[in-house]
Fold each of these.
Amino acid sequence: MLRKNPTGHMPQVSESAFIDPTAIICGKVIIEDNVFIGPYAVIRADEVNEQGQMEAIVIKRDTNIQDGVVIHSKAGASVTIGERTSIAHRSIIHGPCEVKDDVFIGFNSVVFNAVVGEGCVIRHNCVVDGLDLPQSFHVPPMTNVGAGFDLNCISKVPPEYSAFSESVVSANHTLVKGYRRIANSL
């Protein structure tokens, strides 16, 4: 469901994207080409800063936002999700936040007030709060990364996790095509 926010902004969605009918996309949201938005996802750009302004939530091309994901932002801060990125089931991305290209964020993970570098893999049940991750870092399952966390104890992304991330993106491209074909035949 696409809907306006209280300031009158309506989502801008590429014709080549697929948004599940149960998802809610509200306000100043930009969804680019070939994006998959899964069931019960909520992407909501509706809060303003002290000056009454807000930045957009941008979901870049070839990205998938899976079932039950919530993307929101405090006080109108920007959120950008990069190209070919996967946000897995029930994760929360809360702005201000930037997730670069080719990132995988695993099930039930939370990212807040951070920049996640290109090619990072954040596994399931992790929290990244207030600390930027450099390119190609691997956050193991159930790890909390925040102020004072020693990034030197995190390794680079192993090749098998990069391959897994690429396979998830590919699978979701197929879903976009399949669901769009079904929607067009109704």
Amino acid sequence: MPKIKTSRTKKAPKGWDHIEPTLSELQIKLRDVENEPIEGKRKPEVLWPIYKIHHQMSRYIYDLYYKKKEISRELYEFCLREKWADAALIAKWKKGGYEKLCCLQCIQKGDSAFGKGCICRVPKAQMEEEKVVECVKCGCKGCASGD
């Protein structure tokens, strides 16, 4: 006879009730975006709002811990462990030149056509003309830290 699996609920650390309403609201927005119809959109455009909300959730937790210092390390690590925020993206935000990075796809050189970073990573001052730049992968309009 197979073992019965019991769900072990991990107790949230102190301060979770402070950030949980915002994270739940963003989670509801994410579900609404996932259920939207996709007719008339290009294939990558369907994922852009999902990336945007994912970025908002990660940035919210990052700001609370590193900028405002309103949450404890225990709560921060709990959020990373429970996948409320992207640990790899937050690790990049802590490095110089990546403070405004929108997603990890934009810095992966193997995914681009010419083996370089994404067009949204180029500072607007270095662009040839004043044209609107939009990333094909995530829809970002520019996430270079030099802007």
Amino acid sequence: MLRKNPTGHMPVVSETAFVDPTAIICGKVVIEDNVFIGPYAVIRADEVNDGGDMEPIIIKRDTNIQDGVVIHSKAGAAVTIGERSSIAHRSIIHGPCEVQDDAFIGFNSVVFDTVIGKGCVIRHNCVVDGLDLPDNFHVPPMTNIGADFDLNSISRVPPKYSAFSESVVSANHTLVQGYRRIANEL
């Protein structure tokens, strides 16, 4: 469902994207080409800053936002999800936040007030709060990263996880095409 926010902004969704009918996309949201938005996802850009304005939530091309993901932002701060990225089931992305290209955010993970570098893989049940991650880092399952976390303890992404991330993007790109085809048949 696409809907207006209280300030009157409507989502802008590419004709080549697929948004599941159970998803809620509200307000100043931009969804680019070939994006997959799964069932029960909520992407809501509706809070304003002290000046009464807000930055958009942008989901860049070829990205997938899976089932039950919530993307929101405090006080109108920007949220950007980069190209070919995957936000897995029931994750929360809360702005201010940037997830750069080719990143993978695992199941039930929470990302807040951070920049996630290109090619990062954050595994399931992780929290990244208030500390930016450099490119190509791997965050093991159930890791909590805060402002005082030692990034030297995080290794580069092992090749098998990079390959997994690429396969998820490819699978969801195929889903965009399939679901769009089905929607056109109804």
